[in-house]
Amino acid sequence: MAMDKLYEFLTGPALWIAVIIFVGGLAIRVAWLFGLSQERDKPWHDFKDAAWAWRSIIHWILPWASVSSRNQPVFTGVVWLFHVCWIGLPLFLGAHNMLFQEAWGWSLPSLPDAVADWATLVVIAGGVFFLVRRLARPEVRILTSAWDYFLVLLALAPFVTGWLAFNQYGPYGLMLNLHIFLSEVLLIVLPFSKLAHMVLFFASRSAIGYEFGTRRGARVW
Amino acid sequence: MTAEAQKAAEETKEQSAASPEPEAPQPVDVGKIKSILAANEGARMRMWLSICSRCGLCAESCFFYLAKDKDPKLSPAYKAINTIGKMYRAKGEVSREFLEGCLDVVWGQCTACRRCTMYCPFGIDIATMIVTARAVCYSQGIVPDGLARTTENIRTSGNQMAMATEDWIETCDWMAEEYGEEVHGLEIPMDKQGADYMYTVNPREPMYYPQDVGMAAQVFHVAGLNWTMPSTGWDSTNLAMFAGNKAVATIPVKAMYDKALELEAKAIVITECGHAFRSAKFEGPYWLGIPGGKPPVPVIHSVELFRDIMRDGKIKLKHKFKHKVTFQDPCNVSRNGGLWDIGRELVNLLCEDFVDMTPNREHNHCCGGGGGFIPMGPPFKKRRMESGKVKAEQIRATGATHIIVPCHNCFDQINDLNKEYELGVKVVSFKEIITELMEIPESMIPPEEDEEEAFEAEEEAKKDAEEEAMEEAGEVQGS
Predict the structure, then answer these.
(1) Which of A132, B185, B274, B298 is the most buried (most CB within 10 A)?
(2) What is the per-residue pLDDT across A131-142, written as a single tens digit (0 to 9) for each?
């Protein structure tokens, strides 16, 4: 069966390649930026301070902990739920953990399937909300390029296909392979796109925490 | 066609006839642009350019955006993407026409107040990106005339108004004499060695508002400080910073640091000015390449020194200021200086009835006159008044009769807004309030007071107070 062969390829060599690019790409990007910062971002290094980095991060990683995020409470709530589910689902999904167990002999705790099912819908609904917001709000629409729409869709794609496959809507084999394939595309694109904010968020927030906090004694949230 | 329309049509024709005149296309020095972009392309710049997720949260932070019916083209992200963003994207290969368009954005639509930086989830320092775009424009001679002039003044004379050293010293002597009439023994010690404080000013003080120099001297003298005025390096302002010319921006900072080191002053005090504080305390050390990024002599703002003086009881007040006051947070004192609480502490030490603006502290809006806007002069005045609407409304909502403003740019801008929006407030500095209300110690009361003069002054003060009371009563009736 073609689907089975494809599945084998996607969960075999393709997965390895995707994971290596994802982890390696992010690691190299971070290391390279760090090296560059030592040469060209002197204030960053002159005013390093863990406490200000932490404060700068925590006020923006928790919902409604900054004035800016409180000014747009609904958006902030959706953003927060979206991110929690987006990161949590792939790690704690029962089906994924069965695969981890099979491959490595260990696994993370698993979410009940019903919860995971709803969390997937939260991600999809959140993504749709972002797309609608992008179109509806003039100050967001004017900033948005085709690539931005594509990235939202790409970030949603594994969740849509995964949800369809799990609920056995449509041809299961095809959905499953699509789910894996699109996830791998996402992993490969992530380190080289703005989705790299997954890790660079922490670097960027730390830098501004030093700049305002350590250097000027000022808050930035 | 009406006569007016006809005239307009003719004018348009004239203009269009004039425009195709073969104007030699001035090339840009791409190499220079590339080198400026490269020097600023650190890890932060790269991150900022690449991770902005186009969420639009910065828009609501910007008073230009708010004042102009939320025009999406005034959102900070839009301004950055279409200026500095495009410069990097084109790897510096941009046209003169493009840079001229940028001038309108990076100077005419941004005061580098950095409020957007606080409103960005990723902490992208949009204002710093805009300032980099200014440097690129400046390198090609594209800069508002007002800033070009002041930059040239700094380059040739060391201060932004090209004031001669003799004139500066003379003004100090004159003020010492004038203000010594109220405070006996007042002097303005010039170039005193080993003083605790070396006071620096904005050249507009000796040039146009010499009383500011006199009042500061009174405050320091009555407080019994060991202070000095430097004969050189006295201009702590830095409009070259806002013009985007780092090379010239180092000149006044270096002169100031050098003088403080030469005099072995323990601290440099910055007058009630916002951007001077930013330049002297935060940016200067990097322009000069000082390791560690800190000035060689500690830099403090007047707000800090005045607070210390009042808190420690070095000056006693006859009574507190009785009118309802509000306080303007200059961007470079509060948001970018971390002094918002000290400012409020000082206001409360001096005034009975303080009402804050909304929003306030580090979230306060820029007055609209910062980032070089005031010296950019008449061509930008209309825009300055339009974008100042946000500040005007903030002030009006407080119901205050007085506004304390520890920054010259804010001072001028709020005075202009006061007229434009008929706010009916009086704009004052901290030193004005302190000198008005301070108790002069007996030893400093001038020995031979002309009794007649004193009597007259008293009468006048009484009359003023009556008038004010009547005005207030009228206002109450009116509302």
Answers:
(1) B274
(2) 999 999 999 999
Provide mean pLDDT across the span B154-159.
Answer: 95
Inter-chain CB proximity B125 and A69 less than 8 Å: no
pLDDT of B9 above 60: no
Nearest beta carbon to residue B293 from set A47, A134, A140: A47
Domain boundary among B285, B308, B331: B308
CATH number of B399's domain? 3.40.50
How far apart CA A219 and CA B420 sit, in angstroms, is 33
Cβ-contact B406, B333 below 8 angstroms = yes
**Burial class (CB within 10 angstroms; exposed 0-12, middle 13-18, buried 19+) of B337:** buried
What is the number of domains present in chain B? 3
B288 interfaces chain A, CB cutoff of 8 Å: no
Same-domain status, B330 and B421 = yes
Does the CB of A208 have a partner CB in chain B at under 8 Å? yes
Instruction: Determine contact, residues B124/B48, Cβ cutoff 8 Å.
Output: yes
Would the pLDDT of B476 be above 50? no
Domain count, chain A: 1
Tokens of B235: 């201009």
Lookup: tokens for B434? 């302190």
Which are the contacts of A31, defined by CB distance < 8 A and separation ≥ 6?
A: none
Predicted confidence (pLDDT) at residue B462 exceeds the cutoff of 70: no
With CB atoms and an 8 Å threshold, state whether B119 touches A67.
yes
Say how far apart CA B181 and CA B456 lie, in whole Å: 16
Average pLDDT, chain A: 96
Minimum distance, in Å, between the CA of residue B242 and any CA atom of chain A: 19
Beta bridge partners of B317: B438
Amino acid, single-letter form, for residue B374: I
- The answer to whether residue A221 sits within a structural domain is no
Residue A205, domain CATH:
1.20.950
Query: Which tens digit of pLDDT belongs to each residue from B268-280?
Result: 999 999 999 999 9
Each residue's pLDDT tens digit, B218-244? 999 999 999 999 999 999 999 999 999
Query: Is residue B238 left, alpha or beta, with left meaning phi > 0 and alpha meaning psi from -120 to 50?
Result: beta
Q: How far apart are CA B270 and CA A186, in angstroms?
A: 53
Expressed as residue numbers, the domain containing B290 is 147-308
Residues 6+ apart with CB under 8 A from A167: A117
What is the rounded distance in angstroms from the CA atom of residue B295 to the CA atom of residue B282? 8
User: Where does residue A86 rank: exposed (0-12), middle (13-18), buried (19+ CB within 10 A)?
Assistant: buried
Amino acid at position B244, single letter: G
A220·B117 Cβ contact <8 A? yes
A56: closest chain B residue by CA: B123
Write out pLDDT tens, residues A16-37.
Answer: 999 999 999 999 999 999 999 9
The identity of residue B43, as a single letter, is A
| CATH number, residue B117 | 1.10.1060
Burial string for B14-53 (b: 16+ CB within 10 Å, else e) reads eeeeeeeeeeeeeebeeeebbebbeebbbbbbbbbbebbb
